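Work through what follows:
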Amino acid sequence: MLRWFLVLFAVACTAIALVHIGFGPASIPGSVPVNATMDSEDRFYATLFLGFGVAHIWAAQDLSARAQTVLALQAVFFVGGLARIVSALAVGLPSGLFQFLGALELAIPLLVWWALRKTA
């Protein structure tokens, strides 16, 4: 079950990345037009998120051998949630959607860690 959750999670990450690569910041709900530098940054970071998703798909294929990889990837995801807190403190709360996503970014890694411990 954990394997399939991780594959579904990875497919969602990959899809989000591809939308950002294709449409840039316009794919962000509530976004405003940005300059070329911000567009370039969004599409660049989307490629890293694409790699993140693909790495999860690879790791999920053999959880017994790649559990540490999954944990490292989930740690990165968790730090992303912490970065949203830094943003909220620096410039204020984002839309409700992004507050929800931040909560998922903090909760999912903890649940994956717990599930991996149960299967080990």
About this structure: Residues 2-119 form one domain. Residues 78 and 106 are 5 Å apart (CA to CA). The chain has a mean pLDDT of 96. The two ends are 14 Å apart (CA to CA).
